[in-house]
């Protein structure tokens, strides 16, 4: 291949930052709300899968069901429940936001504001839920 | 009060010429003849605050490395040739001013995402234009206008699709879409914007056909309202809003 370099100011092996892929796209509220919606959606899906399996155990044998449910009564599971409720609450509120964005042109224009409202509602809900729940988990 | 004339021996007030400053650009290069992988290369360029990214690319190409490859034609935001990812966001190089970027850090420039990379900042736009053609972006009227007359359209009728007439087909929107990155079959925002332009045109009679096309699995329902497209569009088109309007037209079965 002919050397098509016109100038000489640039040495060919200039210390270039080696980052093989492209940079991360810097989207704003809309993109990150979508990412969170996906992550929480997949997490909830897997929870439901496990939940249907463990609940159906009761038809196999009530003892097995009790044994499995018993293992859930641990502090670690209690924290997991906080995460689960957090995911569900975000997914629910953001789902409403998406419906508004799709059907109401005011919401399409003000989706960023709506995202922060979703975050606000999420914080309020979690502030109400988490202390009570943790008292139940750790308060025996 | 006496007129404040300049004293003859006072030095003429010098307008201080703006000084250029050095800006570092880190550009993602790829030469299909020699590179197996794209690589990052940095360039230091003397720039003024009022310069554009396109000026920097010109300076690099003309003064430092003639092999740098990019596309541009009008250099004034009209032709849509030079969409690229500047600091992680899709922008037109010819409309992005140095003063609007943080030059204390290097400026990253790379090709738009989701289309096959050909060389340096150039991608193969064919899949993009293929989707554009598929939505039939041209006027199709069932009736001929009165001889010697134009097709009448009121200001209000025209206003409905005014926003989407502004598209310059730069692909900044489509290549900013996370859905398009993972699913190249998705029509993408630009095709939907250009379908919108004719779907809601009162002179056009083929809205139904276009709505059917976009009701496809890879049509409007792929849109997840991430708003990257709206934020990327150099013409300020409310892309996501246009897509939402097409979604609703599909549901109602008419424009
Ligand atoms: S809608 Fe905007 S970003 Fe998309 S191709 Fe047209 S001008 Fe470019
Ligand atoms: S060169 Fe024509 S739009 Fe930038």
UniProtKB/TrEMBL annotation, chain A:
Record key words, sorted: Heme, Iron, Membrane, Metal-binding, Transmembrane, Transmembrane helix
One BP term from GO: tricarboxylic acid cycle
Organism: Agromyces seonyuensis
Record field: compositional bias (Polar residues): 1-11
Main location: membrane
Region called Disordered, residue ranges: 1-22
Gene3D superfamilies: Fumarate reductase/succinate dehydrogenase, transmembrane subunit
Assigned GO CC terms: membrane
Top-level taxon of the source organism: Bacteria
Compartment(s): Membrane
UniProt keyword Iron-sulfur present: no
Official protein name in the record: Succinate dehydrogenase, cytochrome b556 subunit
GO molecular function, one term: metal ion binding
CDD domains: SQR_TypeA_SdhC_like
Pfam families: Sdh_cyt
Cofactor requirements of the protein: heme
Assigned protein family: Belongs to the cytochrome b560 family.
TM annotation in the entry: 35-53, 82-101, 113-130
InterPro entries hit by this protein: SdhC_prok, SQR/QFR_C/D, Succ_DH_cytb556, SuccDH_FuR_B_TM-su
TrEMBL record, chain B:
Keyword Metal-binding: yes
Enzyme Commission number(s) of this protein: 1.3.5.1
GO MF annotations, alphabetized: 2 iron, 2 sulfur cluster binding; 3 iron, 4 sulfur cluster binding; 4 iron, 4 sulfur cluster binding; electron transfer activity; metal ion binding; succinate dehydrogenase (quinone) activity
Pfam families, sorted: Fer2_3, Fer4_8
Cofactor: [3Fe-4S] cluster; [2Fe-2S] cluster; [4Fe-4S] cluster
Cofactor notes: Binds 1 [3Fe-4S] cluster.
Pathway: Carbohydrate metabolism; tricarboxylic acid cycle
The 4Fe-4S ferredoxin-type domain, residue ranges: 157-179
Family affiliation: Belongs to the succinate dehydrogenase/fumarate reductase iron-sulfur protein family.
PANTHER family: SUCCINATE DEHYDROGENASE [UBIQUINONE] IRON-SULFUR SUBUNIT, MITOCHONDRIAL, SUCCINATE DEHYDROGENASE IRON-SULFUR PROTEIN
Name of this chain's protein: Fumarate reductase iron-sulfur subunit
UniProt organism field: Agromyces seonyuensis
